[in-house]
Specification:
By secondary structure, the protein is mostly helical. It folds into four domains: 2-46, no CATH class; 59-222, no CATH class; 271-345, no CATH class; 353-465, Cytochrome c-like domain (Cytochrome Bc1 Complex, Chain D, domain 2, Orthogonal Bundle), CATH 1.10.760. It has 20 helices and twelve strands. It has helices spanning 2-14, 17-29, 32-38, 48-63, 69-72, 78-83, 96-101, 113-120, 129-137, 162-165, 190-195, 201-207, 211-221, 230-233, 271-282, 301-306, 336-345, 358-369, 436-446, 453-465; strands at residues 106-107, 144-148, 154-159, 166-168, 176-177, 179-181, 225-226, 248-249, 289-290, 310-311, 390-391, 411-412. The strands form six sheets. Strands 1-5 form a two-stranded parallel sheet. A hairpin with a 5-residue loop joins β2 (144-148) and β3 (154-159). α15 (271-282) crosses α17 (336-345) and α18 packs across α20. The radius of gyration is 25 Å and the shape is globular. It starts with a helix and ends with a helix. The relative contact order is 0.10. The structure holds heme C (2 copies). One heme C (HEC) is lined by residues 159, 161, 163-165, 190, 226, 228-229, 248, 250-251, 253, 256, 262-265, 271, 274-275, 278-279, 283, 339, 343.
Amino acid sequence: MSVLRKLAVPLTVAGGVGVLLLLGGVLFNGTVSAMINQSHGRVGQPDLRTMRLVNEGRNVFRGDTFGDQAVWGGVLGLHKAIEGAKLGGVGPGVSPKTALALGLKVDSARIPAKVAAAIKAGKVNLDDPKVTLALLKLNAVVGVKGFFNRGGTLSSVGITCALCHSTVDDSFAPGIGRRLDGWPNQDLNVGAIVAAAPNLTPLEQSLGVDEATLKKVLLGWGPGFFNAELDLDGKAIGPDGTPHSAATRIPSAFGKDGQNLHTWEGGWGSVTYWNAFVANLEMHGMGNFLDARLDDKTKFPLAAAAGFGHTLPYVGEGVLPVPAKAQGPDLITEALRPLDFYEHWLPVPRPPANSFNHAAAARGKIVFDGVGRCSSCHMGSLGTAAGYNAVKPSQICIDSFQADRGPDGTYTIAPLQALFTRSKRGFYHDGRFKTLLAVVNHYNGCFNLGLSARQKSDLVQYLKSR
Ligand code: HEC
Ligand code: HEC
């Protein structure tokens, strides 16, 4: 009874009928957990709706290709490159070693204990594409889904969101471990993977370039980078004359709740807008998509020509969704709700306690909120602005190349949560600043802050602690 009395005191202070109901629930079920459930669902019941949405969303995020195998396998023939000539495909094939070198990750939870032991004992030939096929069959290659013929050869291959927005914790071996959903895959070489496809003709045609040029572009992105607007505006070369500077870092997919505008450019819209965009126009899944802004022939010449602003589900035939060829079901729209929920539900990871200097970080926070003026844009724990969270390029003293590729000519105020999960390929959209100190030095000049060396290093420790 004393526990209940202790509970009853603050509850009574809160007052009202709710308290009586709450206490009724506690007494009726006789457990405090029932009271906790009260805030989420009916007394005594776990929150089934939340659990269902999380599960569905996780399945979509990790496993749903939205039918995009029609393009990645069907059109580009990537499954043939994975198999290699010996197994009925083309070329040398993709061994597990090659796959890991391309930045692909392996989910250790999908590997049976016996196989894991054999790998540890060095009894599995990691140079053999057959092993890659076995891993695909186990659904162990993060973000890649194999489709198999009866005889065990690959009939196609598709990709999922997890390809770019998940990594693993390397607990089994480098590149092999438990999944970390929402963490950007900073090692993934998307360009090199696409360039390995046997049939690049549709991409060459849509961009109006020859094979050699296309490959140069794709191989120029580098690990952790992707040019998500290339198929809209055809801009393959960035401000410094390289394909790398026209690509952006793959961002995290966690910590987006409470944030208004997304992507590096911002003007596109919310997470759920971008999910629909990516599933339809980047992964080339089968779905409906509507955005009349993409009819702008000057800004988005390729998207306008391909009718990207008005896609319908389609099957095969060319790499672009062609409305005239519309057939087949919409595999995307119904997945958007759980997908959105899952991303917002994903926890923001905390940096390891020993990865920064705590005293310096505490001092750095004072600089961040004070003379550094950082929190005028990076507010609170959101790390981005409450409200319209994007700025013009001149406000942060950088060029407008990437901003101009989005609808509003802006850069999103990057949320600064869990920077430790995405520090490998530099900072800002194109990774132009290799270190956090370089970012701070940039602001010091841009805003004429006059920070001391000590203030700068404290600020860096604070950023690492977020
Ligand atoms: C080929 C790699 C790739 C795949 C696959 C991919 N994304 Fe992304 N994603 C990116 C890149 C690159 C950006 C940044 C694009 C930009 O800002 O122009 C991005 C941006 C995002 C953002 C905005 C993040 C932010 O910081 O505001 C979200 C959310 C997102 N993706 C979710 C998804 C979902 C959901 C899927 C699956 C339907 C998916 N992505 C598939 C590479 C990928
Ligand atoms: C005027 C608004 C504004 C102010 C003030 C501002 N930032 Fe930023 N910050 C941005 C924008 C916008 C970006 C994204 C730039 C891009 O995408 O290239 C950004 C990006 C960053 C990044 C890189 C994040 C990443 O994922 O690459 C860091 C770190 C950062 N800011 C720290 C700071 C610090 C420290 C200060 C104070 C000295 C500060 N910012 C002040 C707008 C601002």
